[in-house]
Amino acid sequence: MTETGLAVALTFALCCLVAVIALALVKLRRAAARAAAREETLRAVIDALPDAVVVADRAGRYVMSNPAARQLFGEELGTLLDERWSERLGAYSSDGTSLLGPSDNPLTRSVGGELVDDYRVVLRSPNRAGDMHASVTSRPIHDASGATVAAVAVLRDVTEARREERARQHTEERFRRLAEATFEGITMSVDGIVLDSNETFARMLGYEPEEVLGRDSTDFVVEQERAIVLAQVQTGSEDTYETVGLRKDGSEVSLEIRGRMVEVDSMRLRITAMRDITDRKRVEAKLAEQSETLRTMAIRDELTALYNRRGFLELGGQQLRLADREGRSMALVFADVNGLKQINDELGHEQGDQVIRDAAAVLEQVARSADLVARLGGDELVVLASGLLPENLAAFGARLAAAIEHHNAHAPRPYKLSMSFGVAYRAARAKTTLEELVAEADQRMYVQKRERQMQRGAAA
């Protein structure tokens, strides 16, 4: 190659090298500009944060802080985090009782490589009204080789949040104390699953408080009542109802329950209150038994144990209404003891009472189980029979006569039982009242009694 060609080649190569260097410089400038822009953006973001942000190097000196940190601490860049750091900043333990020690500083700990999360401190300063409760999070900063070169800490003011949390805790504690003091069992559930309860509920059913949590509400009632309880829960009913609870030992307890749906933190909860009404139900049952006893005494005849007039009119009226609905006929037999006055006069009233009891027993023997037998008073006895047709009345009379004959043959009495009776018939859905039936049958009974007396007079 000639000297001229060599010079041209070197010149071209030099130009190319210059171009490459120039291009590299342009790229470096652009990268530096982008890095500066990113740094500026990051700085702007950090400066805009309401939380205090500080960075310390490995020597423990402040190398960066945002306005919130400078306003809070008043520390200048380059200030050393020495042993008196907590005294300068007024940094106390979370309960506010003692200054933090040199090794308690989150930045110092992170410079040593430690990760610090939600470290609670109290900041106290003459220039600040009241204590400031803060949460500090700090992290070590590593270089490309992974070595720790600095640490960053973020301090957040949680004074108001702490105040709200303490107020909420106090409120919860008050409600907890109130719930524990009540005589009612209280549960809080979601979709029937118990989330919480007071001690009264657990003790009511023989459990420890922690044993009822996470259980289905229907676990605490007898099996035959579970569908009812489930329906109350699913419909969100607020009606008060009674059910039978199931204790842990398998015994039963009567419960009165009422519930209400509430919304807590966007969650639909059911608050249920229940009381043990076992004693009340026991008293109610006893009162009902006593009431039934009194009612029985009110409608039963003391001498014969048959229904008395009041019982006959009450139950007989019900039977007539039922017969009208079902289209059945009715018949009423009115019976009267013959010769009662003579028995009383000659044998005494004890025997008079006995003959009435005998007549009642005979009528009960002849009557069907569905028939109503009663003593209206004195020696007047009635049988109200349902579905007894006119053609069957003669057969009823024959059974009654046979029963009287059998009684006289087998019962050792100083008298012979004798009765006169009359029958009144009521067709299906007739308008005849019970009182009219009694009057009609009574009239026919007296006709038979007079005929018997006339027959006796003719025979004499």
Mind explaining what this structure looks like?
By secondary structure, the protein is an alpha+beta fold. It has three domains: 118 residues, PAS domain (Beta-Lactamase, 2-Layer Sandwich), CATH 3.30.450; 99 residues, 2-Layer Sandwich (Beta-Lactamase); 160 residues, Alpha-Beta Plaits. The chain contains 13 helices and 15 strands. The strands form three sheets. Strands 2-1-6-5-4-3 form a six-stranded antiparallel sheet. A five-stranded antiparallel sheet has the order 8-7-11-10-9, sandwiched between helices. A four-stranded antiparallel sheet has the order 13-14-12-15, with helices on both faces. Helix 10 runs antiparallel to helix 11 and helix 11 crosses helix 12. The N and C termini lie far apart (186 Å). The mean pLDDT is 84.
